[in-house]
Amino acid sequence: MIYEQLEKRGIKSQQVLDAFRKVKRHQFVPEEYRSMAYADQALPIGKGQTISQPYIVAYMTEALDLKSTDCVLEVGTGSGYQAAILAELCDTVYSIEIIESLGNNAKKLLKKIGYSNIVTKIGDGYQGWKTHAPYDAIIVTCAPTQIPEPLKDQLAEGGRMIIPVGEQYVQELILLEKKNGQLRKKKVLPVMFVPMVNETGRIY
Ligand code: SAH
Q1: What local confidence, expressed as pLDDT, does residue 87 receive?
Q2: Cβ(61) to ligand 1 under 6 A?
């Protein structure tokens, strides 16, 4: 997976590649899909949600250019895999999941594996997580149609945010950087994520 799917496609950061060596994707994949855990694709994790394709996880992680002192906000904990990769590279990961059962499963699994620098909660990540803001980096793994204002506000000066934006199944991955209080935006990749929804299931 690491050579064929990541290095060959241009993932260069040794720290990111090392994180992929360390975090075992099969631990985050449901029993029935375990044989496909290192395949080049997203996989179902229940409740209609998916664990992202390894390349996309690596691409988004590399784009954040994390330092070991950084605090990161993740919206969409899902299986917890992306949170674990981030936790290998930064100080603390704060991760929000809107589906209670997924959030609770991820929390248990991450604790069992031994991550003490991932803090999870159940809630609507559109609103961000004000208590721990501002964040050096924000990663969103579900797609709204617009960039949520609260997330823009909770990004630290000099910070980076990576987020898929668009209608269902037609989205662009957008990289934002906050410089002098202004956000610079760059479209980096067409992607397909599950939609960002609110507590009643409505798409943002
Ligand atoms: N990062 C995850 C990918 C999960 S898919 C992983 O590594 O496995 C995206 C997740 O975003 C889904 O679990 C979905 O329930 C969640 N989600 C959708 N809307 C959300 C919202 N408003 N707040 C928090 N999580 C949300």
Answers
A1: 98
A2: no
Q: Which domains does the chain have, with CATH numbers?
A: 2-191 (3.40.50.150)
**35, 52, 101, 116: which one is catalytic?**
52
pLDDT tens for each residue of 88-111: 999 999 999 999 999 999 999 999
Pocket lining: 138 vs ligand 1, CB cutoff 6 Å:
no
Beta strands of 55-130 (E only): which ranges?
Answer: 71-75, 92-97, 118-122
Q: pTM score > 0.90 for this model?
A: yes
* CA 134 – CA 159 distance, rounded (Å): 9
pLDDT band at 39; cut points 50, 70, 90: very high
Q: Ligand 1: which atom is nearest the Cα of residue 52? A: 3
Collapse the DSSP code of 129 into the 3-class scheme (helix H, G, I; strand E, B; otherwise coil) and give the result: coil
Tally of CA atoms within 13 A in the half-sphere of 152 that contains its CB:
12
d(CA 136, CA 19): 19
Give the tokens for residue 11. Answer: 């993932």
Task: List phi, psi (to 5°) of 202.
Answer: -75, 140
Residue 156 CA to ligand 1 centre (angstroms): 22
Q: Which of 73, 77, 179 is nearest to 134 (CA)?
A: 73
Q: CA torsion 74→75→76→82, rounded to 10°? A: -20
Catalytic-residue membership of 52: yes
